C-alpha cells in the first residue's frame, strides 16, 4: 500500500473497546449508573484485559491510573 493510501486510512474512525467481565452485574445495575459512579469489578491488578477494534482482538493491556484518569497500558499486541 502506498503512502497516499495509508494517509486516507489513518483518518478512518473505529470503535475501541476494553472487555472487562463484571460477574453478577445486571441490566438494572447499568441503568442505575450515575456520573462518577464506581463499579467494583473484582478484577485483579495486573491482569490483562482484551482490547478490541471494531470487535477484533488487537491487543491486551492492564488498567493504570494516570493523574485522575483511568487508562489502559498496552502489554501485548496480537
Q: How would you characterize this protein structure?
A:
This protein has a single domain, classed as Roll (Surface presentation of antigens (SPOA)). Helices cover 15% and strands 36% of the residues. The protein has 2 helices and 4 strands. It has helices spanning 3-9, 27-31; strands spanning 16-18, 49-53, 56-66, 69-77. A 4-stranded antiparallel sheet has the order 1-2-3-4, with no helix packed on it. Strand 3 and strand 4 form a beta hairpin. The radius of gyration is 16 Å and the shape is elongated. The two termini are 21 Å apart.
Shape: elongated
Give the domain tally. Answer: 1
Helix content: 10-25%
Number of helices: 2
Mean pLDDT across residues: 87
Share of residues in strands:
35-45%
N- to C-terminal distance: 21 Å
Q: Helix and strand string, N-terminal first?
A: HEHEEE
Report the top-level CATH class: Mainly Beta
Biggest sheet statistics: 4 strands, antiparallel
Please tally the β strands and state the result: 4
**CA gyration radius, whole angstroms:** 16 Å
- Low-confidence stretches are none
Amino acid at each position: 500500500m502506498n503512502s497516499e493510501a495509508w494517509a486516507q486510512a489513518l483518518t478512518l474512525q473505529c470503535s475501541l473497546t476494553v472487555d472487562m467481565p463484571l460477574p453478577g452485574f445486571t441490566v438494572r445495575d447499568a441503568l442505575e449508573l450515575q456520573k462518577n459512579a464506581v463499579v467494583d469489578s473484582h478484577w485483579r491488578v495486573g491482569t490483562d484485559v482484551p482490547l478490541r477494534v471494531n470487535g477484533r482482538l488487537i491487543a491486551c493491556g492492564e488498567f493504570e491510573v494516570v493523574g485522575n484518569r483511568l487508562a489502559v497500558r498496552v502489554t501485548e499486541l496480537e
